[in-house]
Design brief:
The complex is a heterotetramer. Chain A is mostly helical. Chain A is built from five helices and no strands. Chain A has a domain of 136 residues: Up-down Bundle (Four Helix Bundle (Hemerythrin (Met), subunit A)). Chain A is elongated, with a radius of gyration of 25 Å. In chain B, the strands form three sheets. A five-stranded mixed beta sheet of chain B has the order 3-2-1-5-8. Chain B has a three-stranded mixed beta sheet with strand order 4-10-9. Chain B has a two-stranded antiparallel sheet with strand order 6-7. Helices cover 39% and strands 22% of the residues of chain B. In chain B, strand 1 and strand 2 form a beta hairpin. Chain D has one domain: Immunoglobulin-like (Sandwich). Chain D is globular, with a radius of gyration of 19 Å. The chains are: A mainly alpha, B alpha+beta, C mainly alpha, D mainly beta. The interface between B and C is large, with 102 and 113 residues.
Chain lengths: 222, 267, 596, 247
C-alpha cells in the first residue's frame, strides 16, 4: 500500500538561497517541481482507507466472537436456539446483491471505456441497493419471528448474542447501503470516482463474508 | 541553566532513593511460610531496578551538564559505538535481568499457586460482600452445609444463607466476623463473593487474591507468627470499599480451640 | 465521456468563508487539531480540579472544603465529601485524563495539526471524517460530563469499571445506575471518534506523502502518530463492543458480565451465567495498548523536539522507529499483567509476565538511544527542550517501577496499592504531560504565529518537574507500605501512620497544580500578545517549518507542495543556512548522516 | 457541576402537602376535644426468641460504643410480661381522610452503629430527619419496593454531616440498612393517618382519632400483622390488645 518514492533528481549545483528578511532558515526559495497533487503513483486514499476500515470492523467482531465463545463456555445457562429459516434466504439475498454489485462494477468499467450505457450500469447498481434493503428487511423479519417465539434480548445468552450480532451487522450493512446510495447519486451527476466505487464494493463483499461467518458462529454449538 | 538541570536531576534521584535504602516505608514483616522467596524477589528487583534508575538518571544529568554549554563552534561528536552498542547493551542488561528475575519469580509464584493444600489443612470459608468479610468454620463435623443465596438476610445475621433447620451439615457451622487461625497450621481458604468483586489482602501474610463473583477460588497459607493483623479489600467494590476490612488473629492451637467454642456458643 | 480519474483532493481547499465553516465545523485539519487541543485543555483543567479536591479530602478527611456543597449538595453535605462522592470524582478524574487528555492532546491534537504538514500534504484524505472525529469525541465528552447532573451523580466504579459492580445497576451503589450507562455510552462514542481519526492518520501517512517523502524520511513524530493510530484502530475497536455489552446488561437485563446468585442488599439479582473476567479481558486488551497510545506520541514529539535542540540526529532513526513499533506490537501480548490476582489461571499469569518483562527491552533501547544521542550534542536549553529532558527522566522512573509490577510474585504485594498509582502517573501521566508541554512550547509559534514566553516556560518547567517528583515518588513508598488505592479515607489501622505522607503529597499537588496556571496564562497571553514568530524560529528541518506563511495557509503549502530531498534530521552539517539543511531544500549535504 | 436533586421536586410537593395539612388542622381545631384515642398493649405469647449478638469487630469505633453493653439483633424485642417493642399500630380501615396529620418531625438516629428507633413509624408525606451521632461514616440505604412509587436512595453521612431531611410518598414498610455496617438494619413504617409504636412494655396509644369504627392493624417486622375492630367514642379511649405467637 505504501507508495514507492521517486528518488529526487540530484541537483548538480545547489541553488543559492535568496535570503529574505529575518532568519527564517528557509529563504524565499521553494522547490521548482512541486505540484498541488498527491504523488501520482500512490493509490487514491479511498482504496487504502477501506482496508483500514475493514481492519477495525474485523477487530470489533472478533471482540464480539471471543465474548460469545467465553460466555458460551462459562456457564450452563446456554440454550442453543434454532435459527429462523428466513436467515438462510437472507444470506442468499445478500450474496446475490454482491454479485449484482460486481456486475455493476463491470458495467461502469465498460461504460468508462466508452462501451455500454449509463442506464445499464445504473440498473445493476439499483438492483444491488434493492437486494441490500431486502436483506435488512429480512433480518428484521427474523427478529419478529424470534420475538413471537418468545425469545427476547435478555431471554438467554444465545438470544442476546443473536440480537447483538445481527443488530451490529445490520447497522454496518445500512452504512454500506448509504455508501451505495452515495455512489449512485455521484454516478448520476458523473462525479463518481473509481476508487469510491471499488471501496464501496470491497466493503459490501466484506459485509457478505462477515454475515456468513456470523451465521456459522450462531449456528454451530461450540 | 543546563548544569542546574543536571544537579537537580541527581539530587532528586538520590533523595528518592534514600527512603528505599533506609526502608523508611517498607513491606510489613512477613509472617507466612511462603513469603520468604517473595521478599527475596522484591529486594533483588529493588536492587537491580534501583541501580538502573540511579545509573540512567545520573548519566542523563552528566550529559546534560557536559553538553548543554557547548558553543556552536564545537564539533558534533558521536557516541562511540553508536546505536548498535545501545541495542546490544539493552538486550544484554535487560535480557539477563529479565531472565534472572523471571526464573526466580516463577519459583516464588509457583510455591504460592502451584502447590496443592495439605490434606490436613484447616478449611475456612470467607465470604466477601458490600462491605464486610464474614467467615465460616465447618464445626466438629468438618463439613460445610450448602449455601442458599435466597436465604441470605443480613437483617437476621444469616450472612451466608445457610439453612440450619434443614441442612445437617450446617447445624454446627460457625459464622464469625473476625478470622482466627491457629499458628503454624496450614489454612485452606475457600473464597466466595456474595455480590460484586472484592479482594483478600493481608500484607503480612504475603497474600492477595480477588474474589470473583460466580467463581469460587481457594487459597492456602500458613501463618508463623501469633498476632492480630488486618484483612483489607483491594478491589473497588463501592462506597464502603475504604472501610471493608476484618481482623485476622493468629493464635496458639489452644487459644484457637477456646475461641471457636466461644463463637459456637454465640450462634 | 465522463471524468472518472482520481480527482485532485483539493475540492475543499478553497478557504472557507463564514464563521461556522471556518472555526466550528471546519474541515481543515489545523483547525480540528486546535479544537482537539482546546478540548484537552478544558478536560485537563476539570481533571486537575477534581484531583485537588480528592487530595485535600485524603489528607484532611471530614474537614469541610468551603463551597464544596455548591458543586454537589448530595455529594458534600456540609462541605464534607462523602465516600461515594470521592469515588465519583476519582472515576471522572481518571476517565477525563486518560481518554480526553492523554489520548486527545498528544495524538489527536498535535497529530491532526502536524502529521499532514510533516508528510507534505495539503490536508487529510477524508476531511469530513476528520471533522466528525472531533465532534463525535466532543459529544462523548458532553455525555460524560452530563453524568455529573443526574440524580445520584456519575459512576463510582473507577475507569476500569469492573463488572459486576458496573453491571448490576443502581443497587450496586450511587452512580451505578444512570451514571454507568452514561459513562459507557460516552466511551463507546469516544471510540467511534478515535476510529475515524485513526483512519485518517493511517491513510494520510500511507497515501498523502509528498514527492520524495519516503516512509523512512518521515520525522519521528510522524512515525509515532502513525504507530499510535495503528494501535488505536485495534484497541478502540475492541473497547466499543465491550461498552455496548455493558450498556445492554444495564438497560436490557442481559447477563454478559453478571453471574448468577448475586445477593445485593438481601436481594437476589435477576441475572445468571455472565462472566466477570470477560469484561476484564476485553477491557485490558484495550487498556494496555491505551497506555502506549498515551505515551508513544510523547516519545515521538520529544525525540523531534530534542533532535532540533541537540542540533544532531538521533544515533539511529530506524532503531527508534523499530522500538516504537515493537512497543506497539508487544502491548497487545502483555495486558494480562493487570489481572495477576484476578483469579485468572496462574499459568497464564506467567505467560503474561514474560512479554511484560520483554517489553522493557524496546523501552530501554529508546532511552539508551536518547541518552547516547545527548552525548556530544550541542544542547540548547529552552522551555521545549527542558520538558523533553524532563520527559526522559520521568519515563525512566516510571519504566523502572514497571519492573516490579511485571512480576506476579511481587505484584501480590503491590497490586492495587499506591505503587501502581505512582507507576502509571509517572510513566503515562506526568511523562505524557511533559510530552504535551514540550510539543506546545515547540510548535506554538507555528500554530499561532507568536512565540511563548520563555521565562515563564522555564519557571513552569522547574515547578512541574520538582513538583511531579514530590507528588509521585512518595506514592511508591506508600505502595510498598501496603497503602491500598481507591480508598477515600485511611481508617485501616496500619495505614494511619501513612497519613502524614498523604498530607505532604497533597501540599505538593496543590503547589504543582497552581504552577500549571502559569502555563495557562502563558498560553493565553502569548496567543494574543506574544512576540511574532518567524517561519522557522528553531532552525528546524522538517516540513512544518517550510510553510510559506506562519501559521500555514489553508492548504499548508500555498500553490506548490514541497519536494523532499533529505532524511528528516540534517543537523550538524555545514550548509548555506548554518548547521542544518531542511528536508525541502535541494541543497546537497556535505556529510550525509546516513541511517544505521 | 451542581448536581440536580431528584428529591427537590418531591421536597416541594411535600412542602405543599404540609401547608394543606396545616389548613386541615386549623379546620379541625374546633372539634379537637371530640377526638378519642386507641390504647392497648402488644404481647408475645411463648418464649422470647434468642436474639443473636452482633459482632462489630469490623469497625473498632462501633466495638468501643458497646464495650459494656453488648449489641443484639432487634428484630423481636420482648420487655417485662412479654410486652413486644417496636410494633407499629395503625388504622387500616375506617379513615375518613380528615384526621389531623401530626406536625412533629421524628428523628432517625444512627447511634453506636445501630438505628434508634429500630422502627420509625411515619405518616405519608410526613417529614423526618436522619441524623448521625457516630464518629464513623454511615450510609443510609432505604430499600422500598420499586412498584410502590417510593424512590429508593443511598446516601452517606460522614461524622458531623447535616441531617438528611425527607419523607415517603406512599404507605409501605421500608427496610433500611447501612452497607458499611451490614448488621445495621431498621424500618421506616410508612402508614396513613394516626399511628403509634409500642414501647419497651408493648404499650401504645394512638392519638387524634375522630369518633367512628375502625380496624386497627399491628405490624411486627418478623411476626407479621394482626388486626382488631374498635369503636372510638368522641373524647374517649378505645382499647385494643394484640398477642403475637412466637415462631
Amino acid at each position: 500500500m505504501a507508495s514507492t518514492v521517486h528518488e529526487p533528481p540530484k541537483i548538480a549545483s545547489p541553488v543559492e538561497p535568496v535570503r529574505t528578511a529575518g532568519h527564517d532558515g528557509r529563504g524565499g526559495w521553494a522547490p521548482s517541481s512541486g505540484e498541488l497533487r498527491r504523488l501520482k503513483d500512490s493509490p487514491p486514499p479511498a482504496s487504502t482507507g477501506i482496508w483500514v476500515v475493514l481492519a477495525s470492523i474485523t477487530m470489533t467482531f472478533l471482540a464480539f466472537s471471543s465474548a460469545l465463545i467465553v460466555r458460551q463456555g462459562s456457564a450452563a445457562d446456554w440454550r442453543h436456539l434454532s435459527l429462523p429459516h428466513i436467515l438462510y434466504v437472507n444470506t442468499l439475498v445478500l450474496l446475490a446483491s454482491s454479485f449484482a454489485l460486481e456486475a455493476a462494477r463491470r458495467q461502469v468499467d465498460a461504460f468508462m471505456k466508452g462501451r455500454g450505457t449509463r442506464a445499464k450500469s445504473a440498473r445493476w447498481l439499483y438492483i444491488a441497493l434493492f437486494l441490500g434493503l431486502l436483506f435488512v428487511a429480512g433480518q428484521y423479519v427474523a427478529w419478529l419471528q424470534l420475538r413471537s417465539a418468545g425469545l427476547f434480548l435478555a431471554t438467554n445468552p444465545n438470544s442476546s448474542f443473536f440480537y447483538v450480532l445481527t443488530g451490529m451487522h445490520g447497522l454496518h450493512v445500512l452504512g454500506g447501503l448509504g455508501g451505495l446510495a452515495r455512489v449512485i447519486r455521484r454516478f448520476g451527476n458523473s462525479a463518481l470516482r473509481k476508487s469510491t466505487l471499488d471501496a464501496t464494493a470491497h466493503y459490501w463483499h466484506f459485509m457478505d463474508g462477515l454475515w456468513v461467518y456470523l451465521l456459522l458462529l450462531l449456528w454451530m454449538k461450540l | 541553566m543546563g548544569k542546574f538541570v543536571a544537579v537537580t536531576i541527581v539530587v532528586i534521584a538520590i533523595v528518592s532513593a534514600i527512603p528505599i535504602l533506609r526502608h523508611t516505608w517498607w513491606m510489613a514483616p512477613d509472617i507466612s511460610q511462603h513469603g520468604a522467596p517473595i521478599d527475596e524477589q522484591m529486594s533483588e528487583t529493588m536492587a537491580e531496578a534501583g541501580i538502573s534508575f540511579l545509573a540512567s538518571q545520573i548519566i542523563l544529568a552528566l550529559f546534560i551538564w557536559k553538553f548543554s554549554g557547548s558553543r556552536p563552534s564545537d564539533p558534533i561528536k558521536s557516541f562511540p559505538g553508536g546505536a548498535k552498542t545501545m541495542v546490544w547493551a539493552a538486550f544484554l542488561l535487560v535480557g539477563t535481568e529479565v531472565l534472572a528475575l523471571g526464573v526466580f519469580g516463577v519459583k516464588a509464584w509457583a510455591n504460592v499457586y502451584f502447590a496443592a493444600p495439605a490434606a490436613n489443612a484447616l478449611p475456612v470459608q470467607v465470604q466477601a460482600g458490600q462491605f464486610a468479610f464474614y467467615f465460616r468454620y465447618p464445626g466438629p463435623d468438618g463439613s460445610f452445609g450448602p449455601l442458599h443465596p435466597d436465604l441470605i438476610s443480613e437483617a437476621n445475621a444469616n450472612f451466608f444463607g445457610i439453612d440450619v433447620d434443614h441442612d445437617p451439615d450446617s447445624k454446627d457451622d460457625i459464622v464469625t466476623a473476625e478470622m482466627a487461625i491457629p499458628v503454624n497450621r496450614e489454612i485452606h481458604l475457600l473464597m466466595h463473593a456474595k455480590d460484586v468483586g472484592h479482594s483478600f489482602f493481608v500484607p503480612e501474610l504475603r497474600v492477595q487474591q480477588d474474589f470473583v463473583p460466580g467463581l469460587d477460588l481457594s487459597l492456602h497459607f500458613t501463618a508463623t507468627k501469633i498476632g492480630r493483623y488486618e484483612i483489607v479489600c483491594t478491589q473497588l467494590c463501592g462506597l464502603g470499599h475504604y472501610n471493608m476490612k476484618a481482623y485476622l488473629s493468629v493464635m496458639s492451637q489452644e487459644d484457637f480451640d477456646s475461641w471457636l467454642k466461644k463463637e459456637a456458643a454465640l450462634q | 465521456m465522463h471524468e472518472m480519474s482520481p480527482q485532485p483532493h483539493v475540492a475543499h481547499h478553497v478557504p472557507p468563508t463564514g464563521f461556522i465553516r471556518k472555526h466550528i465545523f471546519s474541515l481543515d485539519h489545523k483547525v480540528i487539531g486546535k479544537q482537539y487541543y482546546g478540548l484537552a485543555l478544558v478536560a485537563v483543567l476539570m481533571g486537575m480540579v477534581l484531583s485537588w479536591l480528592m487530595r485535600i479530602h485524603l489528607a484532611w478527611t471530614n474537614y469541610p472544603i468551603p463551597g464544596l456543597h455548591w458543586l454537589s449538595n448530595t455529594g458534600a453535605p456540609g462541605n464534607v465529601m462523602t465516600p461515594e462522592y470521592y469515588l465519583q470524582l476519582m472515576t471522572m478524574h481518571a476517565t477525563l485524563m486518560v481518554f480526553f487528555v492523554l489520548t486527545t492532546a498528544p495524538f489527536a491534537a498535535f497529530g491532526n495539526y502536524f502529521l499532514p504538514i510533516q508528510v507534505g500534504a495539503e490536508d487529510m484524505p477524508f476531511p469530513h471524517f476528520n471533522m466528525m472525529s472531533f465532534w463525535v469525541t466532543f459529544v462523548g465528552f458532553l455525555v460524560l460530563v452530563a453524568s455529573f447532573f443526574v440524580s445520584d451523580g456519575p459512576t463510582l466504579g473507577g475507569w476500569t469499571q469492573y463488572a459486576p459492580l458496573s453491571a448490576v445497576g443502581a443497587v450496586g451503589g450511587p452512580g451505578e445506575g444512570m451514571g454507568v450507562v452514561l459513562w459507557a455510552s460516552s466511551i463507546a462514542i469516544f471510540c467511534v471518534g478515535q476510529l475515524l481519526g485513526s483512519l485518517n492518520f493511517i491513510t494520510t501517512t500511507l497515501d498523502m506523502r509528498t514527492r520524495g517523502m519516503s516512509m523512512w524520511r518521515l520525522p519521528l513524530s510522524a512515525w509515532a502518530w502513525f504507530i499510535t493510530s495503528c494501535m488505536g484502530l485495534t484497541a478502540f475497536a475492541v473497547l466499543m463492543p465491550a461498552c455496548i455489552l455493558l450498556i445492554l446488561d444495564h438497560v436490557a437485563g442481559t447477563s454478559f458480565f453478571v453471574p448468577g446468585n448475586l445477593v445485593i442488599n438481601d436481594q437476589l439479582q435477576p441475572h445468571s451465567g455472565g462472566s466477570t473476567l470477560l469484561w476484564q479481558h476485553l477491557f485490558w486488551f484495550f487498556g494496555h495498548p491505551e497506555v502506549y497510545i498515551a505515551i508513544v506520541p510523547g516519545m515521538g514529539i520529544v525525540s523531534h523536539v530534542l533532535i532540533t535542540n541537540m542540533r544532531r540526529p538521533m544515533l539511529s532513526h530506524r532503531v527508534l522507529i523499530y522500538s516504537m513499533g515493537a512497543l506497539a506490537v508487544l502491548s497487545y501480548m502483555v495486558y494480562g499483567h493487570h489481572m495477576f490476582v484476578s483469579g485468572m489461571n496462574p499459568v497464564s499469569s506467567l505467560a503474561f509476565s514474560f512479554p511484560t518483562l520483554i517489553i522493557t527491552i524496546p523501552s530501554t533501547i529508546v532511552v539508551l538511544i536518547w541518552l547516547g544521542s545527548l552525548y556530544g550534542a550541542k544542547l540548547r536549553i529552552n522551555a521545549a527542550s527542558l520538558f523533553a529532558l524532563g520527559f526522559i527522566s520521568m519515563f525512566i522512573t516510571g519504566g523502572v517501577s514497571g519492573f516490579f509490577l511485571a512480576q506476579p510474585s511481587i505484584d501480590i504485594m503491590l497490586h492495587a496499592t499506591y505503587f501502581v498509582v505512582g507507576h502509571f502517573h509517572m510513566v503515562m501521566g506526568v511523562a505524557a504531560m511533559f510530552g504535551i508541554f514540550a510539543g506546545t512550547y515547540f510548535w506554538f509559534p507555528k500554530m499561532f504565529g507568536r512565540m511563548m514566553n520563555e521565562t515563564l516556560g522555564k519557571v513552569h518547567f522547574w515547578l512541574s518537574f520538582v513538583g511531579a517528583y514530590a507528588i509521585f515518588m512518595p506514592f511508591h513508598y506508600l505502595g510498598l507500605a501496603g497503602n491500598v488505592r481507591r480508598y477515600q479515607a485511611f481508617v485501616i489501622d496500619y495505614m494511619q501512620p501513612l497519613i502524614p505522607v498523604h498530607r505532604f503529597i497533597t501540599v505538593a499537588a496543590l503547589a504543582t497544580g497552581a504552577a500549571q496556571l502559569i502555563f495557562l496564562y502563558n498560553l493565553i497571553h502569548s496567543r494574543f500578545w506574544g512576540q511574532p514568530a518567524s517561519d522557522n524560529p528553531w532552525q528546524a528541518t522538517s516540513l512544518e517549518w517550510s510553510t510559506p506563511t506562519t501559521p500555514p495557509p489553508h492548504n499548508n503549502f500555498g500553490d506548490k507542495l514541497p519536494e523532499v530531498y533529505h532524511d528528516p534530521y540534517q543537523y550538524g552539517v555545514k550548509s548555506s543556512m548554518g548547521d542544518y539543511v531542511m528536508q525541502a531544500s535541494p541543497e546537497q549535504v556535505p556529510s550525509e548522516h546516513d541511517e544505521a | 457541576m451542581k448536581s440536580l436533586h431528584g428529591c427537590n421536586f418531591v421536597a416541594m410537593l411535600v412542602a405543599l402537602a404540609m401547608v394543606a395539612a396545616g389548613a386541615l388542622m386549623l379546620g379541625q381545631q374546633v372539634n379537637a376535644a371530640a377526638e378519642g384515642t386507641i390504647t392497648g398493649t402488644v404481647k408475645l405469647d411463648g418464649t422470647a426468641p434468642h436474639m443473636k449478638g452482633i459482632d462489630m469487630s469490623k469497625d473498632p469505633y462501633c466495638v468501643k460504643q458497646h464495650e459494656n453493653s453488648p449489641a443484639h439483633l432487634e428484630n423481636v424485642v420482648v420487655g417485662q410480661g412479654g410486652g413486644l417493642e417496636n410494633v407499629v399500630l395503625y388504622i387500616s380501615e375506617g379513615l375518613t381522610g380528615n384526621e389531623a396529620a401530626s406536625s412533629e418531625e421524628p428523628v432517625f438516629d444512627q447511634k453506636g452503629c445501630l438505628y434508634t428507633p429500630h422502627v420509625l413509624a411515619l405518616d405519608v408525606n410526613q417529614k423526618f430527619k436522619v441524623i448521625t451521632s457516630d464518629q464513623t461514616t454511615h450510609n443510609i440505604h432505604p430499600l422500598p419496593n420499586a412498584m410502590t412509587g417510593n424512590i429508593p436512595w443511598n446516601k452517606s453521612q460522614p461524622p458531623g454531616a447535616p441531617p438528611i431531611e425527607t419523607s415517603w410518598k406512599t404507605p409501605e414498610m421500608i427496610s433500611v440498612k447501612c452497607n458499611i455496617h451490614p448488621w445495621m438494619h431498621g424500618y421506616f413504617a410508612v402508614v396513613k393517618g394516626p399511628h403509634a409504636t409500642t414501647d419497651g412494655n408493648g404499650a401504645y396509644t394512638i392519638h387524634n382519632v375522630p369518633a367512628g369504627n375502625y380496624t386497627v392493624t399491628a405490624w411486627q417486622e418478623d411476626l407479621g400483622t394482626q388486626t382488631a375492630k374498635v369503636t372510638v367514642a368522641a373524647g374517649k379511649a378505645a382499647n385494643a390488645n394484640f398477642t403475637f405467637k412466637g415462631k
